Amino acid sequence: MKPKNKFQQQIVEASKALPELTKEQIQWGYDNAIQYVGRRTDKGIVTCTKCGHSWQGMEKLATTLLGCDCPNCKTKLIVKTSRKRVFDDSYYMTVIDAHRGYQVLRTIMLSYKTIVGKLPQYSYSEVMQRWIAPDGKHCTLARLRQTMGTMYCDSWIFYTPLELRSESTNNKYCLNVYDIIGTGEIYPKQKRIPELKRTGIKKRLFKQKPFDIYRILLADSRMETLLKTKQTKLFELFLNDKSRKIDNYWASIRICIRNGYTIKDAISWCDYIDLLRFFGKDLHNAKYVCSTDLKAEHDRYVIKKAKADALLEIEKQLAKEDEYRQAKAKFFGLMFSDGLINVRVLESVAEIITEGKMMHHCVGSYHSKPDSLILSACIDGKRIETIEISISQLKVIQSRGVCNKNTKYHKQIIALVENNIPLIEERLAA
Ligand SMILES: [Zn+2]
Q1: Which of 19, 234, 254, 290 is close enough to 261 for a disulfide, judged by CB 3.0 to 4.6 Å?
Q2: Ligand 1 centroid to 51 CA: how many Å?
Q3: In percent, how much of the chain has pLDDT > 70?
Q4: Cβ pair 225, 249 in contact under 8 A
Q5: Local structure of 181: helix, strand or coil
Q6: What's the confidence (pLDDT) of residue 223?
Q7: Could you report the per-residue pLDDT of 41-51, keeping only the tens digit for each?
Q8: Burial level of 430, CB count in 10 A (0-12/13-18/19+)?
Q9: How far apart (Å, rounded) are the C-alpha atoms in residues 91 and 74?
Q10: What is the pLDDT of residue 22?
């Protein structure tokens, strides 16, 4: 894709002068980023796919579970008992580079192919470069990927050029594919732009990809503050949990920093702050936000919140009952019988919900239907079917037994209700 703005133009320009990867870097990758196999025969002869050395190994279970180191080249091997003669695989490595004031993360795919007993053949290709400006803005250069007929996002087409690529998240999973590509092992000699050095990040990555951590550090100076003030648990939480917005907590975090209060359990602390907010407490007050017994205070507020929620639920229910009574009270007390079956109007939301639960059908939510009147048909006090009547049309919409099934009284019930429609009409007119 062609650069669409000045920033992208500058990156494309800068990329042209980015030095080639060195032999030393690539060799390091072959030695450290590839997981070599120790091919084991049924007789227990293990051959290292990196240096070709063979030796008599231990019995199968032990070597397979524990893996082993090649006695010749000292490489850590995964042992596979197999008759296969050819082993090949590809791995990523990442070089952390700086160029013309930009942070560059260069991802290289390393491939090897070994015929057992011989030395491997190697190849590599730099497949992706992610460029980050000192303000956190970024763009990505990459080769093209095979997208048809493969479920993998890293089927690179090696002969295509490293070019600026669109990072659309306009796909099925709303994912930026370049964010998913693995980082692999990271080359130990690293270059960082001064703006990143200043944050004190060094080599620690908090289980994140360097791209993600660098970008957020450069884009949001508050993350730098967290790192510098050793609020590491919070720093990790905001990196990991994108749904937690630092804005919601920043005022309180500043109080903690000012008071030398280091947050050890970041999730509990943030939840606790949310609870304080719910109860209208002062989030700038160290007495609250720098709690000396976070766990106890947190738990106390959780219980308080549960009680508040329960009260709210009861209030909502009462409001529903009120509404229902106002809408349907004129039909209350209505009942009729043919000597066997007794039919009556249900007189509260609670009654309708109980009916729905006992009969395993969905009448429970019908109390809010303005045009429906719900009646219950019983024989000797046992529920048989539930009837829904359209008030405006004065007719039966449905009558259902347990689990929505009809009973042998179905026709009789409908006839009984239809015969008594005039009673409902009377109430309506009153
Ligand atoms: Zn070896």
Answers
A1: 290
A2: 4
A3: 97
A4: no
A5: coil
A6: 95
A7: 988 899 999 99
A8: exposed
A9: 20
A10: 97
CA 224-228-233 angle, 5° bins: 85
Worst-scoring range by mean pLDDT, 15-19, 34-38, 177-181, 412-416? 177-181
Q: Give me the torsion for CA of 175, 178, 179, 181, rounded to 10°.
A: 110
Least confident of 81-90, 199-208, 318-327: 199-208
Interior angle at CA 190, CA 120 and CA 154, nearest 5:
50
Look at phi and psi of residue 381 and say left if phi exceeds 0, alpha if psi is from -120 to 50, else beta. left
Question: How far, in Å, is the centroid of ligand 1 from the Cα of 113?
Answer: 14
Give distance in angstroms: CA of 37 to centre of ligand 1: 10
Q: Across residues 14-33, what is the average pLDDT?
A: 96
Find where tokens 């002869």 sit.
45
Q: Can you tell me the mean pLDDT for 52-72? A: 81
Structure-token pair, residue 97: 């580079």
In angstroms, rounded to a whole number, what is the distance separating the alpha carbons of residues 189 and 61?
38
Instruction: Outline where DSSP puts E strands in 64-172.
Output: 68-69, 76-81, 86-99, 102-115, 121-132, 138-142, 163-164
Query: Ligand 1 centroid to 35 CA: how many Å?
Result: 12
Q: Name residue, tokens 């894709």.
A: 1
The C-alpha atoms of residue 372 and residue 389 are separated, in whole angstroms, by 6
Question: What is the DSSP pairing of strand 121-132 with strand 76-81?
Answer: unpaired
pLDDT, residue 175, reads: 77
**How many Å lie between the centroid of ligand 1 and the Cα of residue 54?**
8
What's the pLDDT tens digit per position in 141-176? 999 988 777 667 778 989 999 999 988 776 666 778
CA of 184 to the centre of ligand 1 (A): 21
Ligand 1 center from residue 385 Cα (angstroms)? 78
